[in-house]
Structure formats: C-alpha cells, structure tokens
C-alpha cells in the first residue's frame, strides 16, 4: 500500500461542489454554536474520560426519551422489530440514548482509544478477515453503521498498520466541523467529505491500495430502494459501486460498547461480490447484502444502534420489499 496518501481536507469540505459563503448572520450563528460546543467539550476534558462519559450518558438517557425526535426511534423500532414488547422497546430507547450521550462526550477523548498496547480500550476481533482483504492488493472498504462508538473504526484501521481515508458527512457548522476533523484525524489522517474534493481523495486511496472507512446505514435520497428489516429503504450505493469498479473487497465491521469506556470491534469476512453481468443488478444485490449484515447485527443488540435516522418513508408498512429481494 502507498505511504504517501495526503490529507484531502483541512477541516471543512465542499458539499455538492462549491458552497456559497455564509451570510454574516449565519456566521454569527455558527460562532455562537461553536462557542457552546467548545465549552461543552472543554468541560468534558476537565471531567476526564470516565466521568464525562458517565455524565453524557446519564444526561442523554434522562432527556432524550422525552424529546420529539424520539417518536421516530419508537416508530422505527416498532416497525422493524414488532416482536419486542412496548416495555422492552422503551428500555432499548433509553439505552440507545445513553450510548449516544456517551459517544458525544467521548469525542473529547479520541486520543485515549487504541486497539494496541497493554491497556487497549478497544478489543479488536477478526484481524484475520482484514488480512485476507489486504492480501488481495486492491485496497478495500470497511463498512459499518452507527453502532457503539462508530468513530473508533478509523482508529482500528490505523492500529492495524493500514493507510486509508474516512468518508463522512461534515456538519453544517464549519467551526464544529474543523474541531471534529482534528479528532477524527487521530484515527485516519485523510478525510473525504461529499463533493468533488472528497471523491478525488476516495479514488486516489483505492488506486493506491488504501482502505476506506464508511458508515452505510443512513438514508440516501439518490440511492436505491433496497429491503432493510423487510421494508424498502433508500440505501447508499457508494460502497457497492466502488467495490465493483475497483475490484476492492467490502469488509463489514461492528462496534459494541463494553463496560468502563471500552469497546469490542469485530471485523467480519468480506461480503461476496455478485457477478451476473448486469451491473445495476450487482450493485443492488451487493447493497442488499450490506443491509442484511447491518440488520443481523442490529437484531443481536437493538440498543447498540442509532434508531433516530429517517431510514424508511413514513407510513410504509412491513413487507414492502422488492420482489425477489427478500431477506435471508
């Protein structure tokens, strides 16, 4: 793998091409938002990792279930997992919020997490699956979802001695984006946001035999309708398209939170790539296989996943899957 992949972002990236300069009023809002954000992160640093994570988890667990956006999480979980009782669903919702609060607080301590060393906070399983992908010599794509502390996958890639790029959606606030980007570079130094600059960094990484880290569980309006928990969901096709175009393996990974601000990250075997001769069908079927992986992991531990995304259209009933594409 190449050693000279250079950072493609300085903290703020382009979204859908060049962005118009924010108005003075919007810049003032951004400054105020950042002042609050930086103050909170500074408080977390003063508290230390354990107390900050505990406080963030307690606060989110206490307030989160009471705010309106939680209705979406309840609706999503009820439709995806109808076998769960309402009482158990509320337990999962509270635990989900606690995990989110802890993850937010842990942004201030990304330098405290490693998969190597005598006091590693990340238990990294399945390294042999990563080695099999490396041996193919085409780079690859590590894919995952918003599970456990999802920011730790890039650190695991780096701790395995790999070079690569983190693909992500930047927040709208450029000052917050720059702060988070600095923390993310502790894992992987190269960041690729949506837009032309990010696309060039992604292609360069794969051509140089590097690896991408991608979260692939959010709704993409320009994706494909692919079954997810028995319902069609607009699914991102970036990873399947890149995999097929560059002959790069898709290697799924999953992060689980353990007690004491520790985590288990498991790297699973490569997802087989279809080769039917019909590129559109191959992209669809590979996206389906990724969704099936995500669904299986979420079913194992529902509270470990972030149910707050608008993953499915409102009012879509179960069983609305594409013919011939049912989950196995």
Give a verbal description of the structure:
The protein is α/β, with parallel strands linked by helices and 328 residues long. The chain has one domain (24-304). Helix content is 43%, strand content 14%. The protein contains ten helices and nine strands. Helix 9 crosses helix 10 (279-300). The protein is globular and about 55 Å long. The model is unreliable at 1-17 and 322-328 (pLDDT under 50).
How far apart lie the N and C ends? Answer: 36 Å
Shape: globular
Largest sheet: 7 strands, mixed
Helix/sheet category: alpha/beta
Summed over residues and divided by their number, the pLDDT gives a mean of: 90
Cα radius of gyration in angstroms: 20 Å
How many E-type strands? 9
Helical content band? 40-55%
Task: Show unreliable segments.
Answer: 1-17, 322-328
- Physical arrangement of strands within the biggest beta sheet: 1-9-8-2-5-3-4
Number of domains: 1
Query: What share of the residues does DSSP label as strand, in percent?
Result: 5-15%
Count of DSSP helices? 10
Element-by-element helix/strand order: HHHHEHEHEHEHEEEHEEH
Describe how the helices and strands are arranged.
Elements: H1 24-47, H2 49-63, H3 70-80, H4 86-106, E1 122-125, H5 127-135, E2 140-144, H6 153-159, E3 164-167, H7 174-184, E4 190-192, H8 196-207, E5 211-215, E6 224-228, E7 231-235, H9 238-246, E8 250-258, E9 262-267, H10 279-300
Parallel strand pairs: 1-9, 2-5, 2-8, 3-4, 3-5
Antiparallel strand pairs: 6-7, 8-9
